[in-house]
Each structure stands twice: as structure tokens, then as C-alpha cells.
Amino acid sequence: MTNGVTLVSTMKAEWIKFRSVRSTILGMIVFIVLTIGLGILVTSLIHAHWNSPGSQRDHLTFDPVSTSLVGTALAQFAVGVIGSLFITTEYTTGSIRTTLAAVPNRWKLIIAKTGVLKISMLIVSEAVCFAAFFIGKAIYGNMDPSIPDTLSNGADLRAVVLGGVYLTLLSVIGFSLGMLLRQSAATISTYVGVVLVIPLILFFFPQSIQDSLTKFEPSYLGREMMSVNPIANGFSPWVAAMILVIYTAVLWVCGIFVFQRRDA
Q1: What is the pLDDT of residues 66-109, one digit of tens each?
Q2: pLDDT-derived band of residue 117, with 50, 70 and 90 as boundaries?
Q3: Helix, strand, or coil here: 236?
Q4: pLDDT of 1
């Protein structure tokens, strides 16, 4: 019965699950609204106060791309939840047993699930980031002719593209934590702890320790990836992206190692 189960057919089945689950639909809506909505709010406020007294000193270091993508600061939680629920929901409902009965090859199942998640999130994340960029560009208009805010600028294009990559990798991190923990609440709590709580804890450490450790935080790596201007004591965008890929790969390998050895 299982001889006809191929990776392609498994991905098709997982795609049907992914797009039909209510949590995925709601998560995508929240993700899109947060990324674009917060970007509109922030860029509108910056535009309104651009010529206010005392703001001129900030013009030299102003980054129109990062401010347009500021919504990713909250959207990163939405994508993590989407990724985690894609695996933990099946444990909660018990449908993981049915899934494993249909696809007993666990490597094939996880590769299919991960493939569906990565492709779906990459397409949506890139679309949302580009939309936020162009909306921000329209709001800023000709606010300052010296600001390079077109995609013909290589740094701007790289920042927008890596913004989508960043959100996609976070969704896979959430998925990998779900394989490890199997419970939705525990997975989401751990994810929030890694993305939000640890940076807050480091804030209370001496500045030297902050400078050494903060740049390795996933959220800070995302900031480096989406920044047009170099960040002090930070990595270059591509190095930051490589580090986040390593984080994601290690968690994914650990997750599938545990998934292979646990009962459903």
C-alpha cells in the first residue's frame, strides 16, 4: 500500500493540510497585517515628523528599507507560530498516527513537510516584504532626494530579499522546535523565549557582554540581514544570514533525530 507513496505525493498531501488548516490561515493573515500594517504606521509617522526641529541629525543615518520592514519585528512571532503548529497540531489531534500510517518513512514525511513550509513561507514572506517596501517608498515619496530607495540599489534589494529569507528561516525554527517538543504551548513558549526573552535578559548584562552575545541572537541577526547601513559590532548581512541558516539546520537535524526515535 505504501509503495506508491512518493515525495511528490507526500508534499501534495502536506500542502492540502497546510492551506486548509484554520490556524495556518489565521496565522498568515496576522503575519501579513503585522508586517504591512506596522510598516505603514511607522513610515507615516517618520514622514510626518521628517522636518521637525531636531530631526535633521537623524537624516544622515536614516534607513528607509529597515523602517519599511519594521513590521517584521512582530511578524517574526506569527511565522514561528505558523511553523510550530504545522507539526504540533497533528500531535494535539492525534492525526500524526494516521499520517505515519500513510507515510511510514519519517524522513520522507519531514522533508515533505519542511519543503511545503519553506516554499509557502518564502513566497508569502518575499511578497509581503516587497509590498511593505513599495508602500513605504510611496509614503516617503520625494521626502529626501539623497535617500536611495529603489531596488536598483543593490543594498536595498538585498535587504528586502533577506527580510523574506529571515522570516522563512524563523518558520522552520518554529517547526523544528515543534518536532522536539511536540506540544503547541511548550513550542510557542520556547520560541518566544528564544526570540524575545533572551534578548531582554541580556539587556541587564554589562555592555561588554551585550556586545559579544547580542549579535548572535536570531532577532538581531534578522536586523543585520535587513539593514542597509552597517550595524556597529554586528555581522555583515550575508554572514548574519549564514549564522541563522546554521541555527535552523542544527535545530532541524535535532528535531528529525528525535522524531525518528519517538513513538507517535
Answers
A1: 889 999 999 999 999 999 999 999 998 889 999 998 998 999 99
A2: very high
A3: coil
A4: 41
pTM of the complete model: 0.91
For residue 112, what is its C-alpha cell? 515533505
Contacts for 107 with CB less than 8 Å, ≥ 6 apart: 256, 260
Which one is predicted more confidently, 61 or 198?
198
Please give the average per-residue pLDDT across 219-236, as a whole number.
88
Per-residue CA distances from 189 to 4, 69, 183 (Å): 39, 25, 10
* Angstrom distances, CA of residue 148 to CA of 4, 65, 228, 257: 54, 9, 10, 46
Q: Which pLDDT tens digit goes with each residue over 25-42? A: 999 999 999 999 999 999
- Provide the residue type at 237 as one letter: P
Element at 18 (helix H, strand E): helix 7-20
Give the span between the Cα atoms of 175 and 85, in whole angstroms.
7
